[in-house]
Structure formats: C-alpha cells, structure tokens
TrEMBL record:
Residues 230-420 form the Fucosyltransferase C-terminal domain. This is Fucosyltransferase. It comes from Patella caerulea (Rayed Mediterranean limpet). Belongs to the glycosyltransferase 10 family. GO terms for molecular function: fucosyltransferase activity.
Amino acid sequence: MQDKPGNCNLWNEFLDLIRKILTIPRLVFLVTTVTLIYFTILLLPGLKWRMEGKLLPSLTQTKVYELNSETEHKKLHTYIDGRLTSENEINTTYKDRNIMLWYVPPRYVNNTPNLEPIKACPERNCFTTTNKKYMKDAAAVFFNVQIMSIPQPPSRPDPKQIWILHDTEPLEDFYTPWIRNNVFRKPQWRHLFNWTMLYRNDSDISAAYGLVRKKTPNELFTRDLDLLVKNKTKNIAWLVSMCNNQGKRMEYVKLLQKYIKVDIYGACGTNWPRSKDAEFHQMINSTYKFYLAFESAFCEDYITEKFYRNYNGDYILVARGGGNYTKYIPAGTFIDTRDFNTTKDLADHLHYLNKNHEAYMEILRKKDLYISMYERLDTVVNNNIVFIHYQYETPALCEICYRINNLQIYSKTIPRVDEWFDKKLCYPPSDLK
C-alpha cells in the first residue's frame, strides 16, 4: 500500500520540529531509536511480502500462460522448479513424513523400495514409494486404473488414508471398451476412493501432460529464425505408431494427402527406430515447416505429449483432437484443424503459409515467446530404458502433497467413482471430409 503524500509531509514537518527541540544528543538518539523500531514494526509485513516476492522469479507458476481466473489451471499450486534439497534437509525439516504409496503403479513408475523424497514442492515432507510395506503408514495410496486387477480391496489401516484413482488415458467405453469391466466399478471398490487424478480438468488432481507458459526474460534469446526457416527443405512431417484408433487420424491424413504432401514416419510409414528418437527430432527441427500433433482419441481436455513435447520445436504444430486447445495454449502459436471445414481448406492454408514467408514467421515468432513444460519419465529395468513416458507429473504430486498437509480442507469421499468416469467426454470425429 502506498503512503499518502499529505501524511508524508506532515510527518516530515513533525520530525523537523523534533530536531529543533531536541538538542541533547542522548535524547536525540533515544527518540530516533524508538522511531526506527516503530516504523520497523509497521513495515515488517510489507518487508516480508517483498522478500517473498523476491523469491517468486525462482518459482514456476503452474498457470496456463496468461489466462483469467475462470480458465486457468485451477488445481495446481506454485512449486519450486530448480532447487533440489538433500534428503537430510527434508528429514530434519519435518518429523512427520507423508508417504505417497503407488500400490498399483502405472508402468512408467519405477520400482521404488525405499522412500524417495519429492524435492520439487514447497511442502518438504512428502515421499513416494512402491513398497507395500508402507501401506500402514501411507497418507495417500495410488491405484492405476489400467493396471488394476485386484478383485478385493486391501485393508485400509486408517480411515483418514486417502485413496487416489489414477490414469493418464481416456477411460470411457468408446475409447477403451475393457473399462466397463474394470474392478473399480465393482461394488466392493467403487465407494472407496477419495480423489481422482487424471488429465481431465474436472479431476480432483489434474495431471496434465504438459503446460505452456510465457518465457521469462532469461529464457528469451536472439536467433536468426528467418535463416533457420529458409534452410528448411520439406513441408509436413508426422511420426505415428498406432495406425488405427478411435480418432481416425490415419483416415484424416489420407484425405489431407490428396491436396498436400505429408511425410509419415514410424510404424505407419518410413521406419524410424525409437532408439534414435533424439536424431529424429533434430531432423524434423532442421528440415520441416509443419508437424502433425494428432491425438488418438477425441476426448475433452485430452491433449498429450504429441502436442506438448513438440511445441518447442522450430516448426508450426497442426493440432487435431478433442481438447480445447486455446484454453491451454496461446492462440496464434499453432494451427487447429477445427478451424477448417475440410481437409482441402487446411491444405490450402498450409500451402499459403509455405509460400508466404512473413505469414509463416508471424506464427513462429509468436510461438517463440512461449515454452512448453513437460517431463520425461523413463522406466528402467536392469539399467536399460524399456519404456518412455512424457507427462508433467510434478505439479500433480505437489498438489497431492499440499492437500495431505491440509487434509482438513480437502478430505472427502467419492460416493460412486464409476459414475464420475461415465460422463461421456469422448466422441467420434466428424471432420473426415
């Protein structure tokens, strides 16, 4: 809060009067000391706020670039992005440890027999493990839907223990028919869960695949984007491993190829081994102007690593899926197929951008002001990487850590978790024309 000018003038006049009256040095010292103490007490809250504000640049705000409060990613709290504390520091900070147990982990969670501290959160007392011996002490327990096949639920040692139903994929009959017979739908299971943790924005814990935010001044650097683009020799690339799926993306691309050339790599085109993933992205980055980020299913909020992982490339993404892209990603930094009535209309627009350098550069320069945040999660067996998953999971884990440290606010039970899954948020595509 700013001081009022009138009050400042009166105070200065008062001090001048005091200085004229107080000619005895000791008395001057005494009054000055009292005055300083008085103002220190008044300014302490503001000083604390300024100190905290000084720390903010070292934090990553888990917001979607610059959205208003109605559409921002409301579930995620601020978390520390860079500073890693030692386990000893964490142990000495809190006596009580909050254990988060992956009772039924997804395949990208590695076997973790010991307690591993989550080092990226403001709350420093949370640990993860896959060791079921910690079940009796766990504050939160994860059950992954796709892997879950336990007929009967385990014993819950404490009624306050939080059970979380987790997954990263759409879980509806249309997309995954097997889901209708999953054990979480059984009467003995469906009333036991407290929170949901999925990519969906209406989850208790929203575990997005990624996050796009504005670059900080330190992340902005000058480079010759014009020269980079002029050196590109090809138009559109697409890497795909599943040729047939509910999103019918292959059918869409075949229609698109009637009007514009699309180079397909992976299982459905020119083979490119996964072991050379880094080389592939370097090749795409230096050679192609556009990259297809096509989802395997049309589901609300379902925007995956196909978009977030490729957003930082020096090319323009063409997005296709059921997610509301401009809710999470700045408009004008990518191309959405929904903005075109037919595949021919899309092809015409891509031809236009390919021939009009400035129109293309306008999109690329705007995109260069933003950065996509995501994490690479490797599954390691016998020192070999056997599976790679891309997910921005740290904010979700920090959200859980925050909630179990404030359980009096967030404690609840979902009466019928199966009904929450049956909201029919997936649908067949209608753009195959």
